[in-house]
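Lab meeting notes turned into a lecture example. A postdoc, R.K., suggested we walk through two folding results consecutively so the class can see how the record format repeats. The first protein's sequence and structure tokens come next.
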Amino acid sequence: MRDRRFVAVHRGGPLDHESHAALARWAADCAERVLPLFARHCKDTRPAHAIAVLQAWAAGEAKTGLAMKASLAAHAAARSATDPAAVAAARAAGQAAGTAHCADHCMGSLLYALKAFAADGRRIEPEMKRQLGKLPAHLGDQVSSGLMARLGKLKLANPHAPDAETFRLQNRLRGGRVRRIFEAWQPTFTKPFRPAKAKWCGPMKSAIA
């Protein structure tokens, strides 16, 4: 079942077109950040094209159907890749392009981008903090809470991302979106760091698409 907060107005939901376009631009940026990890291993241009089509859609220059086709093509490119970082980067582009059709796909763009960074051996916390900081204020909470429901199912190739140091950092950022998200990630670790006065967020019920 989709999160109603991400359902567009023309489908009977509360998400206006301006907010939908803002999420699309944000998703495109998330995917574009890891596109070099795909290009490093593959010459396939479908992920890059998917991002470009989404940017055009957000600007009112492309139809939703075109973005949906570009999304499927990017996912096909992911299936043809073998490097884990490249696969995740192409998935990020596919999820991003899917935002034109269903806005909640924007979260998949960030999740797969984080997975690509982790597979490449990079720390993911700075990227998550950067991207969440770029969200418009009125969309931050719904995206953050949506991510919490999905992070528990994200399988990272880098076991050190996030680590106890990250949890300590987020514990100092009391009330911040990034801290709440990383708290929700704790059930994926055998011996998680437990920040003081942290609240249990409940079992994860959703996985990324």
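The second example is placed directly after the first for contrast:
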Amino acid sequence: MNLYLCSQNRWLHMNKSKYVFAQLIGFLDSDKFRHLVDKYDGNRYVKHFTCWNQLLALMFGQLSNRESLRDLIVALEAHQSKRYHLGLGREPVAKTTFATANQNRNYRIFEEFAFYMMDQARSKRAVDIFKLKGKVYAFDSTTIPLCLSVFWWAKFRKKKGGVKAHVLYDLESQVPAYFHITTASVHDSKTMKEIPYESGSYYVFDRGYNAFKELYRIHQHESCFIVRAKKNLQYECVKWRRRMPRNVLTDSEIMLTDYITSKKYKEKLRLVRFYDEEQGREFSFLTNAFHLSSLEVANLYKNRWQIELFFKWLKQHLKIKKFWGRTENAVRIQISAAIIAYCLVAIVQHDLKLERSTYEVLQILSISLTDKTPLKELFEKTKFNDVKEQFCPLIPGLFD
């Protein structure tokens, strides 16, 4: 106990003279980022504003909720005397320099660092909620509308533009495991081939992912999937169970009868039809997980809603709807920066053992980045009891 108190006091003393933002940087692996910069030659011909400086400026913009690139530059200039101690370097950052860096530097540097941060956050927050001896993921996408006259490369419809963020979300750690950016015109099911499937894991999909060729690929990886079935599904029942729990209407083994789909998925599938009393709606699920109970299948699909909450949280509290650059490269970098910021908050939340929601942690950080207060002390002293919004509010009804 005394040893723990000594280590805590030492940690507080070390960070007493540091700005909050500088303390947050300590949770980022600079060696890993430097390796990625060297891999893609990101600092070639760069004198002052390096990729590391760019990343930290992006983090400052995300965490302080800056609306535009001009807004971010003004905020950095306002703290000019603190810039070096914040970790942003000694030289002032010009708007054109920042815009050029977002436009020209390889987005893969930031994207791969986002993947690394996701792995770190997931490993720290790993829990076994579902007791299934395998990871449980939900895969879905969110569309970010863009002005076609400004973002000319992101054509969606005749007069609309947009991009899609396709996200594989770990339902147990509540952290993304993978993401893929496309224009909004790409159908959701086309990106299933990009998912890095893991043997023994469970993948939950909505109705837009009835791509039986890709579902069969999951089956070949010795993984399980649960997907909401379409109403026009053509099949014949091979075997069914007679005794079923309440609200389970059907639990049967089926074979696909449509010529094209039967060629893509040649083996048996399980069809579970479930009735949601609260909404008065019926839901049909297809799965290759014959070992799960019908209620477990319904419950896994119910938890798919967490990814919708993640998309809502990301759009409301981080900057992925208003972009600080117009090119595809700049958009990709900013989305990666938002994911990094989310993972950073999740890691801080875990390492400091904070009993606060992700929303509370982000809000406290956003107004305290230039304070000289130890992080632990900052969260202990701040009173945030009146906040009603949480990351995972209770959702009425089972499904939406």
